[in-house]
Amino acid sequence: MKFSRMAALALASTLALTACSSESTTEEPDATGSEQGGEITVWLAGETDTPEPAVTWLKTEAKAQYDIDVTVERIGWGDLLSRVTTTLGDTSQTPDIVELGNTQVQAFTHAGGFADITPLWDELGGDSLALQGMVEGGSVEDTLYAAPYYAGSRVVFYDAADVDEAPETLEDLTELAASLNKDGHSGFYLGGQDWRNAISWLFAYGGNIATYDGDQWVGQLSSPESLAGLEAVQELYQTGTQAPKDATDADTWVPFNEGRASMFIAPGWAAGLIELDQWSAFALPGAEGGAAPVFLGGSNIGISAASDNQTGAQQVMKLMLSEDYQLILAEAGLTTIYPQHADLAAGDPVKEASAAAAADGKITPASPQWAAFEETKTMEEMFFEIANGGDVAEIAAKYDEIITSALN
Amino acid sequence: MPNVASDSVVPPAAPPRAPYPVHLGHRIEDLPTRATRRSIGPYLLLLPVIIALILALAYPLGRQIIMSFQGFGLAQQLGTAPPEWVGFANYRTLLTDPAIWTVIARSIAFCFVNASLTMVIGTALATLMTKLSTGVRIALSTSLLFAWAMPVIAAMTVWEWLFNSEYGVINWLLTQLGLDYTGHSWLTNPLSFFFVATVIVVWMSVPFVVFSVYSALTQVSEEVLEAAALDGAGGWQRFRHIVLPTIMPVLSVVTVLQIIWDLRVFTQIFYLQGAGGLASKTDLLGTFIYRLGISQSDYGLASAVALFVLILTLVITSGYVRSLFKEADA
Predict the structure, then answer these.
(1) B3 lies in a domain?
(2) Is B78 in Cβ contact with A305 (below 8 Å)?
(3) CA dist list (Å): B102 to A245, B105, B169, B278
(4) What are the structural domains, with CATH classification, of chain A?
(5) Average pLDDT of the segment spanning B216-220
(6) How many CA atoms lie within 13 A of A214 on its CB side?
(7) What pTM was estimated for this model as a whole?
(8) What ipTM was assigned to the predicted interfaces of this complex?
(9) Per the CB 3.0–4.6 Å rule, which of A135, A328, B185, B199 could disulfide with A54?
(10) Chain B residues whose beta carbon lies within 8 Å of the beta carbon of residue A377
(11) Considering its fold, how many domains does chain B have in total?
């Protein structure tokens, strides 16, 4: 009796332990190739952001030119930061090249996660290339650790059956949206937690999320300009949209394709996902005409300092920043590091709108703490409260305090 | 890490399955064997477990204890700067931050509601299963098994769609019934968020309780029940005075496990937060520690909170664990 009990106990606990250990091994990402010349793993952000033809081109060229097998893994934006954080320092797990959002990259360049790529960038053209604002974001002092990969501005797509011409100002846009808004159909689809798009209203009225006053970051949501922007977006939330209060910027084209929205806002590449026949796009209008300074989306790519195939990683990165590869991105509606690609925009409404919006695009505060703050989903909560009809001045004051303490 | 800890609590579950009411004489019979058969065999059998425990438990736990006394951020995680010793600073933050205490209180409440619901529903279903005809019982246990075997992310995807504010069947059904639930968002209100989370967590946990309790119920002696019935004991009396004491060892083990699992619930909450829940109002300890450590790279404070959860778990379950050991010694 005693013996069998003990044996059962031993067996059960061994089973329990092997059960967990096998679980944890499956969690590990594929080991990256460590042999020279051999394999390079590239992590691309988002499931659809980099067009598939670019990936195919990269694999073919890397094999042909350097005999390198490139493995591309697409990591969802939601998992990206945590996966990079946990693997970037570990030689056996780290991807060789990783794409990060331009609001996330500063945390890693400051922490020393990336290799120095200043010479590579200079060889490609250095100061003569476009997207210099993102070079700053990827650098610590004069050393570049993460090169600009592409930028993409958000543009407004519209159903040509409902909208005849682009509104001139943001106020006109809200009015137009309100006139098209009815039960089950959004004039302008804007989710209650879609802060990345809603923030453009704040920028359009000249507001800011936070500014650096010389020794610390200070929340600026309560400035008169910011308040005007937040009130304008609240009006749109209340009169022009039927989007759920829990919706974010994910899949905003779905209701549009289903005929449940006349307009929606998304990065330029969303053009490829639209299934309507008659549609077009315009740049989000400014408060007083022109194009609003929208939240400029974009990515930087860096080489993991822990990668044990630095040569191969440099070669593959050079391919990803080459004119041919970047051209594929440009054709998909993204703004690339080559200024000459901007000419491609002529005649295409999406690319024209995107270029107009990018000209004045803004990014989030350049504090190394921003990425961590963004992960707390505080911005989502703030816009949720605004969309729900809360008092804008009170909300702004409350979140100014939170932002000030989080960014310093 | 707590995953391993709780799983290792599983083994004691096995012994109490023996037919229990035979206490008399058992001890006397057992004593001489214990003295004479003290050989090294059993210890050799334990060796793999001990090695596995050291590798899987002692190392991460030790690392965590060390980290909780350090300032450990992104640079330390990437190996570019040495960690800095901060003494009890992380614990001081933990004890004085009202936000952390809100999360702790919320977690304890969630844990008790879920563990109790799971136990009550699970025990009721197990009792029901003893009364069912074979065919129905097999159908029921198969569906329970499916619910239990379903990978958690797959299940969560289905649940999210059920409660989706735009396309969800639940909203559609309620609207069909004449209530206006068009576009109703279940997850943005913290209370209804926890209602949805409770439905899902209980749904996922009940099958395990049913199977464990049902197997214990099959060990209840028919003779004793029959004798009690002849003596005039009603259904509830038989359940309360015969069935319940017999299955008590299993019930307490399963309860301990439920409490541990529900206290460190992570996946369901994390997933629902991604689907529209407001993180600051719905964080439980699991997601809070994750956000603190992995998202915000404050590994020191995250470790301190994680150790606090370990201690909290021990405190909450100590009563059950003690009674468990008492039973095992009896």
Answers:
(1) no
(2) yes
(3) 25, 5, 33, 15
(4) 39-152+297-337 (3.40.190.10), 154-294+365-407 (3.40.190.10)
(5) 90
(6) 0
(7) 0.76
(8) 0.71
(9) A328
(10) 273, 278-280
(11) 1
